[in-house]
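Figure 3 (text version): structure tokens given as input.
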């Protein structure tokens, strides 16, 4: 490579000149407003938020471990106690949702077992199949034939009628 370069062919880029800051005797109003905002609004809000976060860090609350207290059953409510009726209905709905999730989880376990075992699913997934049969029978006994608009009262009446039929069957069997 030759030592003498062709400066016309390879021009050196112009150097960047720094922009000089204007210095005036009047302060910049934007800087003044930013400073006022930081001290009047931002600093107190930040202080309060950090204090709240420190308090919450001391006693953590895990919402997914929340346990509701058991309320009296509908059969234990006094006549005309509408608040008890409402609480019993809410408790019944929670119990029904939990039972639905239990059935769904057992069904998913059986599906996973069938997928995993393949052709030998009948002998290797018998325990899961039996568990699904038990869970669905229990769910059907309690919530079956209630329909979409079923509530705690109709469920209680269904259980009462089932108990009366079982007593009649026992009385007829013993005679």
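Below: residues designed for each position.
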């Amino acid at each position: 490579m030759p030592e003498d370069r062709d400066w016309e062919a390879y021009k050196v880029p112009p150097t960047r000149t720094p922009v000089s800051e204007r210095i005036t005797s009047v302060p910049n109003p934007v800087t003044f407003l930013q400073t006022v905002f930081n001290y009047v609004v931002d600093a107190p809000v930040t202080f309060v938020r950090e204090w709240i976060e420190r308090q919450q860090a001391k006693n953590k609350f895990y919402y997914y471990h929340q346990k509701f207290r058991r309320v009296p059953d509908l059969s234990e409510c006094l006549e005309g106690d509408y608040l008890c009726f409402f609480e019993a209905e809410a408790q019944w709905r929670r119990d029904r949702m939990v039972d639905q999730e239990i059935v769904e989880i057992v069904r998913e376990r059986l599906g996973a077992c069938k997928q995993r075992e393949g052709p030998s699913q009948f002998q290797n997934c018998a325990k899961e199949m039996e568990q699904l049969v038990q869970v669905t029978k229990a769910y059907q006994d309690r919530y079956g034939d209630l329909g979409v608009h079923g509530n705690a009262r109709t469920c209680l009446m269904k259980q009462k009628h089932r108990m009366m039929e079982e007593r009649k069957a026992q009385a007829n069997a013993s005679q």
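The mean pLDDT is 87.
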